[in-house]
Amino acid sequence: MYSDAQTGPSVPEEVVPFHDAITGVRGAIVLHSTALGPAAGGCRLARYPSDKDAVADALRLAEGMAWKNALADLPLGGGKMVLCAADELDRTALFRVVGRAVEALGGRYVTAEDVGTSVADMDVVAQETQHVAGRTVRPGHAGGDPSPWTALGVLNAMRVAVRHRLDADLSDITVAVQGLGHVGYALCELLYEAGARLLIAEPRSHVAAQAAVRFGATVVNGTRLSDVHADVFAPCALGGVLDAPMVRNLRAKVVCGAANNQLFSPFQAEQLADRGILYAPDFLVNAGGIINVAAEHLGWDESDVRTRIDQIGARLNETLHYAERFGVTAHDAARRIAVQRMAANRVTMAAAA
Ligand code: NAD
User: Fold this and answer.
1) Which ligand 1 atom is nearest residue 290's CA?
2) Distance (Å, rounded) from C-alpha 234 to C-alpha 160?
3) How many domains would you assign to the chain?
4) What pLDDT digit, counting tens, does each position of 240-289 carry?
5) 161 and 270 co-located in one domain
6) Which residue range forms the structural domain that includes residue 221?
7) Same domain (yes/no): 246, 186
8) Looking at the structure, do residues 154 and 240 belong to the same domain, yes or no?
9) For residue 141, what pLDDT is reported?
10) Is the distance from CB of 20 to CB of 94 less than 8 angstroms?
C-alpha cells in the first residue's frame, strides 16, 4: 500500500467519485482549488485498505498540489485522481475510462502520470481527452518524464538551503539520499557533478551498487538514514518519513528532497525547527516535475521550463525570510504564501466578473 501521511486537508471545491464497471476499479478525482486555473495533479494507482483511505489520500494530495502550483507561479489550481489498484488489470480499458472521466469535467481537471501510472497510460488517456500531460514527448515540445526536472529543482533548492543553514557550497557537504528511483538517481547524478559526497539507501541492491560505482557513493544498510553523518537528508522515496523518532535522531542540519508529504504531521515541522534543522518544504522544492507537465499542457518550450525551475531556489530563499520575519516554520510560511496567492487571484477574478 502507498500512502502519504499528513493531517486532514481543508475543504476541496469538488470530489467526483470514479467507478469503472468493466475493470471494477474505484477511486476519486478531487478538485481542491481552481482559483488559479484548472485543477492539475497526477493520477495515482495504488493499493489502499479501503475506498475511504484512497479518497483521504486524494484529498491530501490535491491540497498539496494546489499549494505546489500556486508557489511555482503556475496558472493552475490543484487536483488529484486516485485509483485503487487491483491484481489483474486491463490497463488500456481502465485508462480509456479514466480519459472519459477527465473529459467529463470539461477541462476543470488536468491529469498526468503519478505513482503507479506511466507515460503509456497517459497516451491511452489522451485518446479520450486533451486535458492530460505526461504523454510521450513530441519533438520540439516540453513533456515526457518529469523526474529529471524534479531533480533539478531539488538541487537548486538544496544549494540555497545549504548556503542559508550551513554557509557552505554543495561541494563542501555530504548528502544522504533515501530512494534512488526516477528522481533520487537523477539527483545523485547532479549532486555528484556538483562535487557533493553521497550516502545512499535504496532497497533495490543492484541500483545501489550501480550508484556506488558511478558516483563513488557509500551505500548505507537499512533505509532510514537518521543516524548517518550527513549534512543534508534528501528523502526521495515515500511520504511520511519525517516522523517523531526520525526527527529526534536526525543528524543532518538540512532536509531537502523530492518525496511528497515528507512530514508525518505538521507537528514535525515544529520539531525540526526546534532542533535547528532547516526543512525545505517538499511542495516548494519538488515542483520541477509539475512545471514540466504545465509546459507540456500549456505549450511552453524547454527554455521556459528551465527558467521556471531556476526560480525554485529564489522562492525557497523568499520563504525562509518570510518564516524568519513572522516567526513561523518554513513549511507554514510556504503554505501561507500559496494560500495568499490563491486568495488574491480569487479576489481579482471576482472584481473582474
Ligand atoms: P520511484 O518509485 O521511481 O522511486 C522511489 C525509490 O525509492 C525506488 O527506487 C524504491 O526502491 C525506493 N524506496 C522505496 N522504499 C524505500 C525506503 N524505505 N528507503 C529507501 N528507498 C526506498 O519514484 P520517483 O518518481 O523517483 O518519486 C520519488 C518521490 O518523489 C515520491 O514520493 C514522489 O511522489 C515524489 N515526486 C516525484 C516527482 C517526479 O517527477 N517523479 C515529482 C514530485 C514528487
Assistant:
1) 42
2) 14
3) 2
4) 999 999 999 999 999 999 998 899 998 999 999 999 999 999 999 999 99
5) yes
6) 147-286+317-337
7) yes
8) yes
9) 74
10) yes
